[in-house]
Design a protein that fits this description.
two-stranded antiparallel ribbon; 8-stranded mixed β-sheet; alpha/beta
Length: about 300
């Protein structure tokens, strides 16, 4: 994929539902002041940095965007000790952020971000122009979630060094090449405490207060999905252990107007596993949303994805 010269990125301080959120605005060249048309919402335990490559490429192709750290993640504020994390808070944050943009954005949202996107659009129809759900469906495979939570809770005392953290991540994601310990991507996931140890850049309370019993909310998320009318694209990973043929079929039954593309070699971490193909898929979809667009021959139509996906 050949993009224009590197677009500008500026750091933002945003206001969610009563709490400050960190954001990055990706400006397209030469119209660096173009209104953002894409809003990026990351997955559980991630930060806005997960979208850096995709957002920069989309901005270079004229799709300026804003990525933000969800509350309790990255550089955004954490909830006060006496304020438990709830799904309503994350949904409200999305509604506030999208509502403050000059026009309804296309939401590109991974995992947790996609679930709250569905809830936000159902509560506020027309909030988003369209949605791209990245390897998430209203019902998910419990084994995949348990694997994610097991990794996130495996190092309560953090890591002695970035090298140790990199080795642990490589063991969890063996299909990826190990990233350099001093890399910006790894530093974006960890923060160094006063004792010198490196710990995850998210509030540990999130696991027990938000994620561990999240299966209880699947019926509510399914009902919200049924109410969504904006264009929907699901991009799933062929090797995902969270999304399966079963959950994709259920999603398409809830939202029959939705489309599905599977990236065969990607796991749940699609944007990092197969970034070029993922980014091309999103670019093609954005082009198809334009009035009078002719999508014939696009990567979306070339993607080898049956409507019901494939078992990982």
């Amino acid at each position: 994929m050949v993009a224009d010269p590197a677009p500008l990125v500026s750091e933002l301080r945003l206001t969610g539902a009563g709490l400050a959120l960190a954001g990055s605005r990706h400006h397209g060249r030469p119209a660096a002041d173009a209104s953002p048309s894409v809003l990026y919402a990351h997955g559980f335990g991630q930060t806005r940095r997960a979208w850096a490559a995709t957002a920069s490429t989309l901005a270079a192709h004229g799709h300026a965007g804003v990525a933000y750290d969800a509350r309790g993640h990255g550089d955004s504020d954490f909830n006060a000790d006496d304020d438990p994390y709830t799904g309503h808070q994350f949904t409200d944050d999305l509604i506030v952020l999208a509502g403050e943009l000059p026009r309804p954005p296309v939401l590109v949202a991974a995992s947790m971000g996609g679930l709250f996107g569905l809830l936000a659009e159902a509560r506020w129809p027309g909030l988003f122009r369209a949605m791209v759900l990245v390897d998430i469906t209203p019902r998910w495979e419990s084994a995949g979630l348990e694997r994610i939570l097991a990794f996130m809770t495996a190092f309560p005392e953090g890591f002695a060094s970035l090298e140790q953290a990199a080795e642990s991540i490589a063991a969890y994601l063996p299909h990826r090449r190990a990233r350099g310990a001093g890399g910006g991507a790894l530093r974006g996931l960890l923060r160094q405490a006063a004792d010198g140890r490196w710990r995850w850049h998210w509030d540990r309370r999130l696991v027990d207060e938000l994620a561990r019993d999240s299966h209880r909310h699947q019926d509510d998320i399914a009902a919200a999905t049924r109410a969504v009318r904006c264009p929907l694209l699901l991009v799933s990973g062929g090797r995902s252990d969270l999304v399966s043929a079963r959950t994709v079929a259920d999603f398409l039954e809830l939202a029959p107007h939705a489309r599905h593309v599977q990236l065969p070699d990607a796991t749940h971490m699609i944007a990092g596993d197969d970034n070029d193909l993922f980014t091309t898929t999103v670019l093609d979809y954005l082009a198809e949303l334009e009035p009078g667009a002719a999508p014939a021959g696009s990567a979306m139509h070339r993607a080898p994805a049956p409507a019901t996906g494939a078992e990982p």
